[in-house]
Specification:
234 residues, alpha+beta, Translation Initiation Factor IF3, Alpha-Beta Plaits, 5-stranded antiparallel beta sheet, 4-stranded antiparallel beta sheet, elongated
């Protein structure tokens, strides 16, 4: 009889503890479901801090030696023009000319072209003096005085503006995005008669850098979205 009572007591205590653990388990499980997922957006407009400007011009002729001398002289004129305007040697690079033999490009009965060789020359300016280069782009017509016509319109030779100082503004933007996410979470908690708890998970989205618009590619819009999970307390 004594052993039976002991076993009964042990069984009763075990059932009681099991009930407590089950209750706590359900409570914890319910608390895990009380999470609000919010996103925070931060945007900033910044001026481009790097510009790549290809100066492209064409040369036509029938004699390669004469064309070589002409191109060499034109390159020297362009480089001198750029330096006089405030650019440095290290910001200017000269590419090898691209030569098209028009005679080799003829098909069938196509009339013979007036000039055999069509040469494309490119001098590229890469600089952090964005405002200076923007001014020079509008002044490039001065080269016409030297018989050099800078051409445009080809996609691969477009002026490119970049923003390379993202690390300087990252902390500020992440802070702003996180603040905006918390404000959204607090509003949700208030509407659901809850209190906002701690951060359960946080995800920093990818930063994107795009032109503000098609007319001002030298002004960039930086954007980031953070995703944060907050717990909700009663």
């Amino acid at each position: 009889m004594k052993n039976f009572r002991t076993e009964a007591i042990i069984l009763a205590v075990g059932m009681l503890l099991l009930g407590v653990f089950i209750e706590r388990g359900f409570s914890t499980f319910a608390e895990k479901d009380r999470i609000v997922n919010v996103k925070g957006l931060a945007e900033m407009e910044v001026p481009a801090d790097k510009v790549t400007w290809p100066l492209v011009y064409k040369s036509l002729g029938n004699d390669l030696n004469s064309l070589y001398d002409e191109i060499k002289k034109s390159n020297q004129t362009i480089v001198q023009f750029l330096k006089q305007k405030g650019l440095e040697e290290k910001e200017i690079s000269i590419s090898a000319p691209e030569i098209i033999d028009m005679k080799a490009e003829r098909y069938g009965s196509t009339p013979a072209p007036a000039y055999r060789y069509n040469v494309t020359s490119v001098i590229t300016v890469t600089s952090d003096k964005v405002d200076l280069v923007r001014g020079l782009i509008s002044e490039q017509g001065e080269l016409l005085k030297y018989g050099i016509a800078i051409v445009g319109g080809e996609y691969r030779y477009n002026v490119q503006y970049e923003y390379t100082s993202l690390n300087k503004i990252k902390p500020q933007m992440i802070e702003e995005a996180t603040k905006n996410a918390r404000e959204a979470a607090e509003k949700f908690a208030k509407d659901s008669d809850s209190k906002l708890g701690k951060i359960m998970h946080a995800y920093q989205g990818q930063f994107s850098i795009n032109d503000r618009d098609a007319n001002t590619p030298y002004i960039k819009k930086v954007r980031v979205v953070t995703t944060i999970d907050y717990s909700l307390d009663n």
